[in-house]
Amino acid sequence: MNLEAKDSMAITLTENAAKHVLDFISKRGHGEGLRLGVKTTGCSGLAYVLEYADKIEQEDKVFESRGVKVLVDPKSLVHLEGTELDYTREGLNEGFKFNNPNVKDECGCGESFNV
Q: Cα separation of 72 and 65, whole Å?
């Protein structure tokens, strides 16, 4: 496990995102935290991958924000440094929103981005 270096930009969660994650892990009954990554896909090139993690892998970069461990693989971290993860509700829709300072462009459907 690789602990966050002081000179590295963190991955952070808003209060709403942290509450949602902690509530879900509590209801689930187990889990180490939230795994955040990117994969190549979509019309703009990259898409976010978000899942609950049951295990911290050796190569994971671990950030702690508002009591939640956020796990990021080294290849994804380049695209995610400085990202703030929020959880929002807009009308009938709710979900995670990524405030990523590295994004240069997003596709029209909002499913992918490039840096």
A: 13
pTM: 0.81
Which amino acid is it at 27? K
Using a 10 angstrom Cβ sphere, with 0-12 exposed, 13-18 middle and 19 or more buried, the burial of residue 74 is exposed
The Cα–Cα gap between 115 and 79 comes to 7
Helix spans in the chain (H): 15-28, 74-80
Tens of pLDDT, residue by residue, the chain (115 residues): 444 443 356 899 999 999 999 999 999 999 999 999 999 886 668 888 999 999 999 999 999 999 999 999 999 999 999 999 999 998 888 999 999 888 876 665 555 566 6
Q: In this structure, what token pair is assigned to residue 58? A: 């050796």
Distance CA(55)–CA(57), nearest Å, equals: 6
Phi first, then psi, for residue 83 (nearest 5°) are: -75, 140
Query: What are the phi and psi torsion angles at 96 (to 5°)?
Result: -80, 145
